[in-house]
Amino acid sequence: xxxxxxxxxxxxxxxxxxxxxxxxxxxxxxxxxxxxxxxxxxxxxxxxxxxxxxxxxxxxxxxxxxxxxxxxxxxxxxxxxxxxxxxxxxxxxxxxxxxxxxxxxxxxxxxxxxxxxxxxxxxxxxxxxxxxxxxxxxxxxxxxxxxxxxxxxxxxxxxxxxxxxxxxxxxxxxxxxxxxxxxxxxxxxxxxxxxxxxxxxxxxxxxxxxxxxxxxxxxxxxxxxxxxxxxxxxxxxxxxxxxxxxxxxxxxxxxxxxxxxxxxxxxxxxxxxxxxxxxxxxxxxxxxxxxxxxxxxxxxxxxxxxxxxxxxxxxxxxxxxxxxxxxxxxxxxxxxxxxxxxxxxxxxxxxxxxxxxxxxxxxxxxxxxxxxxxxxxxxxxxxxxxxxxxxxxxxxxxxxxxxxxxxxxxxxxxxxxxxxxxxxxxxxxxxxxxxxxxxxxxxxxxxxxxxxxxxxxxxxxxxxxxxxxxxxxxxxxxxxxxxxxxxxxxxxxxxxxxxxxxxxxxxxxxxx
Length: 512
Fold this sequence. Notes:
By secondary structure, the protein is of the alpha/beta class. It has 13 helices and 24 strands. It has helices at about 20, 55-60, 60-65, 145-180, 195-205, 250-260, 340-355, 395-415, 430-435, 440-445, 460-470, 475-485, 495-505, and strands at about 5, 10, 15-20, 40-50, 70, 75-85, 110-115, 120-125, 130-135, 190-195, 220-225, 240-245, 270-275, 280-285, 290-295, 315-320, 325-330, 340, 375, 380-385, 390, 425-430, 455-460, 485-490. Strand 20 (about 380-385) and strand 21 (about 390) form a beta hairpin. Helix 4 (about 145-180) crosses helix 5 (about 195-205) and helix 8 (about 395-415) packs antiparallel against helix 13 (about 495-505). The termini are far apart.
């Protein structure tokens, strides 16, 4: 039986296995769940492989194929193969409280966990404060990059496997931190686990069917304590607190981020936005908390972009147009191989500035400062960002779809509340992408209003911070319950104001 060599692991397999099956659980991005539509699951591999099909040749190009790059969902292995992965990435845990807990939920050790659609993040505490953090890409990503795809896979019978994958991911982080701090893992006696409603359903094995079709009403909104052995058998004496969700579309993660921001403890009109695969927003005005979630898609996470990636070494993380040229900065200061979310926003802004992209999102081939850098990539117009990285006209469209959805939500919430966007006195930006985002670039592409740039505050991983605040001060549980009762969900799917805003902000010709 042939074997796949991945790092120090040797994995036996039946001849003819797809590479996507071999790399499952190793952090390879598969936004479409292996359907062959996103073209994001690039891996470098050598050995006995199937020849590339026409679609794979068009997607990667002959040079990349000659260098050993393949798409995991399209290539099959028939003999021994060696697969090289580069999945070490920047995942934000900034914003966690680190002082000694004042009224902790735990007795000896406790952990706060954020189940993001894309990443898992965890912080562990003792009675003296924060001991450490650990992060990993959410292993559920092999079932699809977005919530809808994963819910569909769960409905098709993959629910147990999806639940097991995320539980293993969380427990591996617990083991990593426990070993690093010489903690007997059985002495971790309390976990606070947050996430959006769908992520919590998939974690606990709850039937996700109500979340997938109208009227989209969650039957379980959590705000409860569970015996840890139900999810983690190796923690026989622990309990898990799952903070409350508001609705099918507004989860515990946004409430935890609201808690961490402190926005509801002041009189200012404030907006919180967590930009990820889902664009989640909360508006605090006149004693009312109005929330929504927009299906932004994973473009700002690097998925759906032809050469996109997470924030790994070799990814273009920022760019600026100066002196007639585009200057890019790469994570790790090595030759660029991909482009991550913050770089995607910067590059789009730079292309608009130099005229390579017009107000409708059309990529111009000539007549601008970057004409000499224009090329064709997989049959699409593209601009060459480095020797090996291209940004295509289709990538610009993906940015338009994502930023149009998020900006439409940002504009619609104030309108529902009877105020103007300019009345927002404070803007809180949470999440991994938001933490690295150049706010000037975000405003230039229309992701956020220009007037709010100077009113913005980046708060890091707000969901994880709010979970940690609850872990370290049990009185925060009552505050989360109060916020859940206070919150209202703005349904955007059939809202004509949202639809109009979405169409307006798809383009780049509006005053931002």
